[in-house]
Queue: 2 jobs
Job 1
Amino acid sequence: MTSIDTNTAATDPSLWWKQAVVYQVYPRSFKDTTGSGLGDIAGVTAKIPYLKELGVDAIWLSPFYPSQLADGGYDVDDYRNVDPKLGTMADFDELAQTAHAAGIRIVVDIVPNHSSNQHEWFKAAVAGGPGSPERDRYIFRDGKGPNGDQPPTDWIASFGGPAWTRVPDGQWYLHMFTKEQPDWNWKNPEVRADFIRTLRFWLDHGADGFRVDVAHGLAKDLERDDLDDFTIIGDDMSATDGTHPLYDRNEVHDIYREWRKVFNEYNPPAFAVAEAWVHPSRQYLYASTDELGQVFNFEFAKMDWIRDSFHTAIEEGLAAAERSGSTSTWVMSNHDVPRHASRYGLPQVPSSSHHQLAKDWLLRDGTSYTEDREKGSRRARAAILMELALPGSAYVYQGEELGLPEVADIPWDQLEDPTAFHRVRNQSEKGRDGCRVPLPWVAADTSADGGTFGFSPAAKVAGAGVTASEAGQPAEKPHLPQPAWFADYAADKEDSDPASMLNLYRKALQLRHTMMPTDTSLTWLDEDRSSDLPDGADGQRGGVIAYRRSNGWASITNFSMSPADLPEGTILLASGPLTDDGLLPQDTTVWMSLN
Ligand code: GLC
């Protein structure tokens, strides 16, 4: 075997994030320790040994702040606290300590584009009236028309419905998401200062960094006459000059340069990753070293199992990272997209943007378009090996390591996602709850027996969301219903099956730690080729993705119906069996050490 470099984290602790595996926890659906039906912070602490064994470098916690849950917690009532339904600050401190003791970093989600309408400052803004300093912290405007009863613009918010809502004194406030999520006015110095306070608060409580929600949305310019020329969903994201009134304005970068100064006061400097849905040519700005440092690359999350799409995404992702002086990120699933084990088991559409087919499938409760779970799982196994040998950071979404498919048939009246009920009148979209169903930990604790697959205890325990007098009563049902087939994917069942998805992830992460070179170069191998074969039965085209890292660590994935040759070398790990002749079958990846 060629020489093996130590990994980046080992050589410079301040750069741990450059090629890390970051595991996303959606806390309300991870593990409930009290029987409230909602996952809690103590549940994350309880599962640190599981995460350690899995081999992740960091966990990113989706919002766990006090929230009325108009948008799954991305509507924050109080940025410097834990939702009492999820625990206390002491629980957070214990989590940070336990994670650090296990060598796992903590990344918290910060939501700076909007608060919730239950935030103290929003209530003060409504009470303060037009022209008050309290109102200036948000974006209030007079309406149009003789009585001002028309919204200031005709913009539609992200989850449907108007982007402006009227308050009793007649003014309107802007919300790019639900009406419970008023947008902050980042021109207001108090808002800026308060967020700096929040950043320091979490860093002082042991957080190692931040995932920055809607990072491209903060700076806005509404002092202009042409606002009606813009619609705010979908289009105009391609503006590349920083002049769109709402998104990716040049001034947004001043905010992050200010944050970076705060981050650099810490040792090691705090880490941050931007969620910025901007034109690829502008993404590098967020990732530059004097700003947030890293930006999500969502290309894998958007695409079907098509060789050429992945190949282009890899080339572009690496080029963009180089431009920013950062490393790339790879994301197949998160809390906003249908789980990839299901996406890959549906008919594949090369040009599908934002997986429209998967959305249609959800809309039909998974009853039309046949989901081939076996195929989806085989491809998900191949995909994770292809992803984990790439230079840069991999973001793994909770349950992905169990190979969980999307739950497509949650009844409409049990959905929580505003995407579903803001558009429910025409039932145009079912939303994101199918990937947010509470995790199955124990196969035997089936929902048929009133169990929760070990998500919740059988009886309530005093703690997060449960009072002392309620202790001993039967637990609440999980906040989203778990299907009976979750038993097949339960962590304990997969733990004891050497061939399970969980054990593949464990082996892959372990090997990644030993194999990951410090440099981020990638070389395409001779075996790498575009489709030269007939289309597969479901429209999938063939081809091979084959690359090597500087130390000879190689990953080869076959998308084609015909088995592919492998280069000379030693096989380290395979996502599935090879053919009897030692060839690589369709939808399979091997890791090799090349001679
Ligand atoms: C981000 C989050 C998403 C949320 C939205 C509004 O896109 O990932 O879940 O709905 O921001 O905060």
Job 2
Amino acid sequence: MTTQAGITVRVPAKVNLGLVVGGPRRDGYHELATVFHAISLYDDVTATPADEITVTVEGSQAEDVPTGTDNIAVRAALLLAERAGVPDGVHLHIRKGIPVAGGMAGGSADAAAALVACDALWRVGLSRDGLCELAAELGADVPFSVLGGTAIGTGRGERLTAALARGEHHWVVALAGYGLSTATVYAELDRLRADRVLPVPRVPDRLMKALRSGDPAALGASLVNDMQPAACSLAPSLRRTLHVGRDAGALGGLVSGSGPTVVFLARDAEHALDLSVALTASGTVRDVRRARGPVPGARIVDQPR
Ligand code: ATP
């Protein structure tokens, strides 16, 4: 929406349907092969003209989000202003619907939304490719937050190709009452695999085939996350959450990215409701959401929440 009140961009959370992690690189990052999938849990970022670049945050975990230049949405606006030679400021207001430090790329989503919103507000007119190039400078997950859908990520996850994927899927998202730092989970993964020689990461053929077929049962059986043992080692209650979902008939379940959010695949919308009731009743999770995927990436919306 473009009014005096500003431009609002809605941006989805991501889950990794497959996350295959290679060994640590010289630069400290890990080589990945991943399948990103955008689901219908959203942050809204509203950009309004201002003298400086500032941010405010609202939502259930707003107090966990920094409001200075360490907020990645502010860094996105600063980067675009510098590269496009824009002298203006902007005020960014973030309404968080994506869990913070949940392994769903909430910060990356806000960076993508800020790029799209400021590009429109300042009339820079970057293409999607231009936005994705800037996005990759901000973080490995940011380009995917710009694009959305279902995509294969390689490198650190920033090199994207669209995935051949059919159908709409129904997800149940189990939120934990705490966060896990991505860096700590990678360190635990390296510790657990210290004596292993790791092959070049590759998305398993089985998962690619399941995506092409659109069959939720095949997809559920092919979900894979190399980071899951490390997340469960740091937060053992995640194993219980995974069991509850599977016992309640989920087609598949896995820790999302570095966790601690756990996602389950349901047969359909009704099954998703049954799963969310079972997870809520188990008392193992802070909250449960239902979501659809794939959904588009960061886009300007008419109706801010
Ligand atoms: P990923 O899945 O990309 O590994 P995540 O979803 O686990 O990330 P985020 O929600 O992106 O984690 O937050 C990670 C940390 O980044 C937070 O603890 C917070 O301090 C910081 N941060 C900076 N900017 C933001 C933002 N706009 N929203 C959320 N967190 C932010």
